[in-house]
Every structure is written in C-alpha cells, then in structure tokens.
Design goal:
This protein is about 15% helix and about 25% strand. By secondary structure, it is an alpha+beta fold. It has one domain: Glucose Permease (Domain IIA) (Distorted Sandwich), CATH 2.70.70.10. The strands form four sheets. Strands 3, 6, 8, 9, 10, 11, 13 and 14 form an eight-stranded antiparallel β-sheet that branches. The protein has a two-stranded antiparallel ribbon with strand order 1-2. Strands 4-5 form a two-stranded antiparallel sheet. InterPro entries: Cell_wall_metabolism_enzyme (IPR050570), Dup_hybrid_motif (IPR011055), M23ase_b-sheet_dom (IPR016047).
Length: about 220
C-alpha cells in the first residue's frame, strides 16, 4: 500500500513540487559558488542537490539547478522559495535582492522607490506569487514598461502584486485571466524607466490604487 501511495504521488505531482526549501537553498549556494560575480562570493562545503529519479506522465525529474537554468534564472542565496507554498517569491529559486523600498539616491532612477528590485538576469522567468486574477497587463505601462498586475485575496484582504520592466513579447496573461501560484507571467527585462535588466515588484494593499508597502517585508512575512 505504501508503494501504491508513492506511485500515485509520482504520477500526479511535478517533480519541482517535491523539493524542499533545503534543496533550493543548497542549489542556490552551489550556483553562486560556481558562477560568482565581482563583489559576490559564497563559500560552502557539503552542499547537496536534489536527486529525484521519478519520471512519469510527462514530468521529468530534474534538480533545482537544472530547473533554474531552464528558466534562465541566475540563482543566489538572498532568500529561499518553497515551490510547494501557496504564497511564493516571484522567482522559483533564490535570486539577488536589489534596490529596496523607499528613498534611494541613484542617477537615472526614482528617488521614492515604490517597490523591491530583484536581479535574476535578463530573460529569467517571473512567477505569480499567489493565485489571483489579472487586473492589468500591458506593454505600455509608462515608467513600469511591460507590466502585469494581479489581484489576490489573502487572509480576507485584497492585495495587488505588480511585476514591471518585463521583456517585450513575454507577457503570458491578459486582463481577466485567472492565474495560479508559480504560473510564469513573463520574463525579466529592462523596459520603461529602467537602468538595467531587473524585476520591479510591488505589493499594494487594497487593490491597484491601494497603499504601497515594503514588498520585501511583506514577502518574508507571508511566503510559506
């Protein structure tokens, strides 16, 4: 009976959903070690990657590193994403956290930064943080460039998540579409008011015209 239960899981669940946060962290550290950039260096020992061997019904086993590479993501260990969570980070694995919410002093960018920047590399796949409904999706979002906005009801509260500066031609959903957590919305670009490829991510409490809050604080408090 135990074998039958395991077989049922193997034939109905994508391999990524079986990975633990520890698997993701190990991959992120391993990736950062093998592909470090100037100013970024992570030293680890004994890192272990996921090694699933199940293959059935179109789902092929892969390590988190292979998944990230396929999604064009340059992994980092700034956070851990749980691929089984009902509320997740906007990337399937940890990536570098860039400019944060609030005041900043930089040439060519807004001083009152209303979101959180993530730097996963050009073309990296961006995912929905939770189930919801698309309320804005356009290539002409002004300073936000190519942008998708999604309404979610989380703990009885209306939350809008914003994904900006995506690549032209990468949007996969239109207004009115229903999305599920971890659905790929588009890819990381540099459209609109942007000084380089990154995701500008916002959390607005109360809807599109609601109050912007610190997305990093909100994600740490709500991802599961």
């Amino acid at each position: 009976m135990s074998f039958a239960a395991l077989l049922a899981v193997a034939t109905s669940v994508p391999s990524l959903s079986l990975l633990t946060p520890a698997d993701v962290q190990a991959m992120a550290l391993e990736q950062a070690t093998m592909h470090s950039e100037d100013g970024q260096r992570v030293v680890i020992s004994g890192g272990v990657l996921a090694t699933q061997t199940v293959q059935s019904e179109g789902y092929e086993s892969q390590t988190v590193q292979e998944y990230a590479e396929a999604a064009g993501i340059r992994a980092d260990s700034d956070f851990i994403n749980n691929p089984a969570g009902t509320i997740q980070w906007p990337f399937a694995v940890g990536v570098h956290v860039g400019d944060q919410f609030g005041y900043r002093d930089c040439a060519g960018c807004s001083s009152d930064h209303g979101g959180q920047d993530f730097n996963p590399g050009l073309g990296a796949e961006i995912q929905a943080i939770a189930d919801g409904t698309v309320v804005d999706s356009t290539d002409g979002g002004g300073s936000l460039g190519v942008v998708v906005m999604i309404d979610h009801v989380i703990d009885g509260e209306l939350i809008t998540s914003v994904y900006a500066h995506m690549e032209y031609g990468s949007r996969r959903f239109e207004v009115g579409d229903t999305v599920e957590v971890a659905d790929v919305l588009g890819t990381t670009g540099s459209t609109g008011m942007s000084t380089g490829p990154h995701l500008h991510f916002e959390i607005r409490i109360g809807g599109v015209d609601g109050t912007k809050v610190d997305p990093l604080v909100w994600l740490y408090a709500n991802t599961n």
